[in-house]
Amino acid sequence: MNKRATLQRSTVNDPVSKLVTFIQFDEPALKVDEYTLKVTQTTNTAAPNSFTTSRNFAVSGERFSFQSGEVDSVFPPDLANGEFDGSLASVVLNRRTLPWERYLDTSNAELPWLAVLLFDADHQPLTRSATASDLVTLNQKITVLGNDQLTGVGKLPADVFSYPGMNPLGYGETPDESCSVIDIDLATFNSIAPSMNDMAYLAHIRQVDTVDTVKNGSEESVFSVVLGNRIAKNDQPAYAFLVSLENMGSYLPGDDGKPASFPAGIKSVRLICYRAWRFTANTMDQNFQQLLENLNRPVVDGRQITTLQFPATFVQPNDSQVQQALAAQAKGQLDGASSQVLVQNAFGQGYIPMNHEMRHANTSVSWFRGPCTPFAVSETSFVSTSSADAANHYNPQTGLFDVSYGAAWQIGQLMALQNTSYANALFNWKKAVNSATASQEEQAILQAALGANLAAGQAMPFSGLLRTRSNALEQPPLPDIVTLWLSRLKLLYGVPFNYLVPNEQMLPLESLRFFYLDLNWINHIVDGAFSIGRTCSKQQSTDSVLFGQLQNAAHPVTLNQRRQRKSQHFAANVVQQYTGFLLRSQVVAGWPNVQVNGYAVADDISTEIKKLRMDRLSADCIICIFDGEIKQVAIHEPPEQLHCGIEINSAPYSTTLRAVTGDRPGSQFLSDPKGGPPTAVIPMRADTQTLQVAQAAGSILSKLNTDFNQGIQDFTSAEFALEMIKGVVKVNFSQHN
């Protein structure tokens, strides 16, 4: 039975809720290896009455490289600079069984075969491209299981040690299989590599709540995490590598770094590398909390832009100035100052001037604004529009167009045409509706013509047939593919980014921009997508009637695009206002599954607003849309990336302990009942950077049982990870009127 440890969170207003569950391991039913299945049957007949047969088979798996997407994230993020002193580098993997699918040592199947090695700048190995033959002893003939015809020759130099048992290669592998490798001199390997005892604590499983992340396919997700065993030096780069230690158990150093016995003449060790990254522990501001707190900088002239608008450096005009400028424009008395006021006001409303190529080869400049506005835009009555041009607005006093809604209509139509499944389903549905409508009108005419000459009580001829035909020609239901696609379009799925953010300066690096969703813009893009199949004014009027039906069908689907927690209650969206934000930051790149919650009232978590959409638009940008007006957004560090580390403020190094058993597992102890701080000593090797992990686990277990009466019998990687977790970061952004 795998051991489990739970980290919980609670606040003054928040009942205790599970944040993450740590699980010791998830060993697959069959590791990557060769197997023989043997079957024996004995009958009750005379001898020979026992019959045996066998079949050989193999379980294969990644060995030389990982498939795309296996590595979810790394900590610290690549190229990050920040307060990472005392932090243990780690890798989060999307496949829960991956660290245990191969053997570190066949004597202990529970040990992981993957490890994170951390190097200082003066011992940094270089990754290079290689093949499987570069891991087999020089001139040794390479064979492949299950393929006698496929052979090769080893290229590993005699003074370099690599994986024992690599030859023969496994099923499906080839001598020229590509991989990345690093060569580590033997002394460095012995000083930094974990011992076999350490390895038992350096990989675990995390079961986390992913409802509030971009990974919303299920209520919970399970990740495997591989921890490093070293801390970085301050103010110099540290280099981390996720490597394979397959079958290397006997060649790992002792707990204190005592070298293992290698064959004579070995000078270095060659390892397969799956991921390499670099970070620097210093006082810069690229950790999770500091990155978020430094968003929307710098502040210029006391102004900090937090909504989606062009970042003009001038002061926004007040209402009186705008009204005076509009009055001057209406009288034809617009001067330079008044024109400047109107332009400034347009920027403040989220507009941007864009070059406009007219249909008749003329060029002009027109105003454009996307669906994400810096203020609430009232929804106007909308039925349907015949074309993109009909949705454009023209100001005769300035000679400029506002093409916002026309562009929305046009991109909606183009996106619909691009999706052939949706376009065909919509066209066929409209065709069926038109057919049913025509038949119903035809029968109404017959009813009126024939029924007028009938005597009282006389049945109309063929009344049964007409009634049957009428029932058969009722308007067909809207196809699910149409409803689903349009419901996602209403949340801007698939809309090109330059329609959401028409100018890059509106969403610069390290910025958070709040917005209101312009429902008029949404209505026009949906209408454009709904225009497929219109060929005459009659169909336009029919679509105007059907558009309301379409909106009614798509709306509830829009509200339920994302998975929610069971029995969760959200604040009601009384005024049908939809808001959201765009976040462009290294936080998104470094913590890809960042968690987000929005609230209708600041500092009141009981007013949480339902998320309608949360998606990564790029490696460093996410969009989030809420079913209501947000007054506060809370951004959390993702539980699977909660980092482990030690406290190095004073010697000896230590870790602050958490409860494993009792009423509040995972809660940090505030004091030691026997006096002193609630900490356990973390033993280090001679270099003061490499943890003696197994010894540290023993130190933590002894302290928990002796001073805190935890009664723990078996201390595994799950409990070790819980005790090494350092902080649960949450940053709030509040809107002030």
Please tell me about this protein's structure:
- By secondary structure, the chain is an alpha+beta fold.
- Among the domains are: 219 residues, no CATH class; 229 residues, no CATH class.
- It contains 16 helices and 32 strands.
- The strands form 9 sheets. Strands 6, 8, 9, 12, 13, 16 and 17 form a 7-stranded mixed sheet that branches. Strands 1-2-14-15-7-5 form a 6-stranded antiparallel sheet.
- A hairpin with a 7-residue loop joins strand 1 and strand 2.
- Helix 4 crosses helix 5.
Which key features would you list for this structure?
737 residues, alpha+beta, globular, six-stranded antiparallel beta sheet
Lay out the secondary structure.
Elements (H helix, E strand, L loop, with lengths): L3 E6 L7 E7 L9 E10 L7 E10 L11 E5 L4 E3 L7 E4 L20 E7 L7 E4 L9 E4 L2 E7 L6 E2 L16 E8 H7 L3 H4 L3 E7 L10 E8 L9 E8 L23 E14 L6 H6 L25 H12 L5 H13 L3 E6 L5 E6 L3 E2 L14 H4 L1 E3 L4 E3 L1 H15 L1 H32 L11 H10 L7 H10 L7 H4 L10 E7 L1 H12 L6 H23 L19 E6 L1 H5 L4 E5 L8 E2 L1 E8 L2 E6 L5 E5 L17 E3 L22 E3 L11 H16 L8 H8 L5 E5 L3
Parallel strand pairs: 6-17, 12-17
Antiparallel strand pairs: 1-2, 2-14, 3-4, 5-7, 7-15, 8-16, 9-13, 10-11, 13-17, 14-15, 16-17, 18-19, 20-23, 21-22, 23-24, 24-28, 25-26, 25-29, 27-28, 29-32, 30-31
Largest sheet: 7 strands, mixed
Structural class: alpha+beta
What global shape is seen?
A: globular
The portion of residues forming beta strands comes to 15-25%
Helix share bin: 10-25%
Look at the structure and give the mean pLDDT.
Answer: 88
**What's the count of strands?**
32
Oligomer: single chain
Model regions low in confidence, pLDDT < 50 over at least 5 residues:
9-16, 468-472
**Number of helical segments?**
16
Distance separating the two termini: 55 Å
Radius of gyration: 33 Å
